Amino acid sequence: MKCFIAVLAVLLLFTACTVEDDGSGLDTENGNDSSVGSNDELENDDGSSDSSTVNDSSQTNDNLTGTDDEQGNDDSGNDSLEGVTDLKASYGVDILSLSWTNPSMQGLEKIVVVRNMTQYPADMNDGDTVFEELGEAYSESQVLTGASYFYGVFACYGEKGCSKGAYVIAKPCFAQMDIAFVMDVSTTMGYMLTALENEIGLVWDFTAEKFAGTPRFGLTVFVDDVTVTNDGNAFASKEAITAEFNKWGKFTSTNKQTQSTEGNGDWPENSLDALALTAKNYKWRTASDTLKIIILATDDTFYENPKSFTSGIQVQHTYDQTVALLVDGKIRVGAFAAKKGGPTGNADVQPGFFTQYNGRDSIPYATGGEVYFIDDVQTGTLHIYETVKSFIESAACKSYDEK
After folding, report:
1. Cβ atoms within 10 Å of 303's Cβ, excluding its own
2. Distances from the Cα of 63 to the Cαs of 69, 71, 162, 163, in angstroms?
3. Using CA atoms, how far apart are residues 281 and 55, in angstroms rounded to an integer?
4. What are the extents of the domains in the chain?
5. Which of 2.60.40.10, 3.10.129.10, 3.55.40.20, 3.90.79.10 would CATH assign to domain 43-173?
6. H or E element: which one contains 364?
7. Which whole-number Å values give the CA distances from 141 to 17, 80, 96, 157, 172, in the listed order?
8. Would you tell me the crossing angle of helices 319-328 and 271-281 to the nearest 10 degrees?
9. How far is it, in rounded angstroms, from Cα 285 to Cα 143?
10. Which of 29, 85, 131, 268 has the largest count of CB atoms under 10 Å?
11. What integer pLDDT is reported at residue 100 of this predicted model?
């Protein structure tokens, strides 16, 4: 199931996600972009979305801030011939639809819809002709999430020729999302679990508004060992996952492992196994239909296989294996991570999160995700809800290859 946000051009070309600076504190040192987006839609009574602003032959260049080429205006059309009006693009489940109102001018013989995947059609021959009938609607399925579909619609009058075009761009977006929170629950992480407990309900409500069906939130917790909670199933309600964050927030004061009473005596934590096991064991839906996100939070570095912690627990995965599981699963990672850590609090713990790890891309960068400075959560300058919301919005209309 995919959804499609349609964005039409009359003044300037609007993309499905408007990029703006969210002030989230995102570090860009490893090529991670600090910009986030928002999906602004017009909502119909049935819950679908559309836009209805179009270019047509009744408009003059005085009404446009861009050039004709930028707006997709067709100079080859006949100014004396009426074009279509009220051109709209909307989305449904696995379908993209166009609708318009035909002109009342006598002699109308057919409507021609031309599709181009890279730009507005320069004329009726610039793209694929996908509709050539006397109708007022066109639809297609099997469209690609994150791709831009540029359409030109022309009214044709036989030997008199065709009108100038009306234009619309549609960009399919995901209609459903799976999100798993992967949380370090060692002693110093209590504040992060508390912040999530306080704001996870807001994230849930936002997700319920923007995506189809009941939100699907999962939780994995880790110290040296790893527990994928709820048997890898999504929690049934925001009350249920809020209670789970409360439980694990209290657990942070124990300085124990998640599955035993063994103490946590060293400073690296097992982020790699937590990510890898979440990628493998959380009950994700099909990647082609689902935006898949992990929100990771840790304030220290990690070990990789074959190293073991002082607890005797051996790491199961290497860095490369972990990244491969995430990429193969088409999972984006938004990480709240520290820059300094270790036994004295002065060791550089950025590799793998903010910077490269042994010459390989950081986990957020490799997965098309983002990274945030976790200390800003503790000081109150970075808020979970706003940051996670922005991350979701920035990824909702991208194919996984758009990193």
Report:
1. 20
2. 15, 11, 22, 19
3. 49
4. 43-173, 175-395
5. 2.60.40.10
6. helix 363-366
7. 22, 35, 6, 29, 11
8. 30
9. 19
10. 268
11. 98
Q: Which helix (H) or strand (E) holds 111?
A: strand 110-116
Calpha distance 58→79 (Å, rounded): 9
- Read off the tokens for 204: 């849930």
pLDDT along the chain (403 residues), means of 10: 38 32 40 36 37 31 26 62 95 78 97 97 96 96 83 97 95 90 97 97 95 94 98 98 98 96 92 98 92 97 97 97 98 98 92 98 98 97 97 90 77
Sequence-separated (6 or more) residues with CB below 8 Å from residue 270: 222, 223, 224, 225, 226, 302, 303, 309, 313, 315
CA dihedral 228, 230, 231, 237 (to 10 degrees): -120
Distances (CA, A) of 403 to 33, 370, 398: 10, 10, 8
Cis omega (within 30 of 0) on the bond before 306? yes
Helix (H) or strand (E) holding 337: strand 331-337
Cα 315 to chain centroid, rounded: 30
Residue for token digits 């928002």? 38
Helix 384-395 with 190-210: angle, nearest 10 deg? 40
3-state helix, strand, coil in the chain (%, to 5): 25, 30, 45
Token pair belonging to 315: 């790491």
Gap between the Cα atoms of 114 and 186, Å rounded = 58
What pLDDT score does 76 carry? 60
Beta strands in 147-287 (DSSP E): 149-156, 166-174, 176-184, 216-222, 226-228
Residue 94's pLDDT is 62
Lookup result for tokens 């021959």? 125
d(CA 46, CA 397): 21
The highest-level CATH class for domain 175-395 is alpha beta
One-letter amino acid at 112 equals V
For residue 397, count CB atoms less than 10 angstroms from its CB and return exposed for 0-12, middle for 13-18, buried for 19 or more: buried
Reading the block at residue 199, the tokens are: 């704001």
End-to-end CA distance of the chain: 22
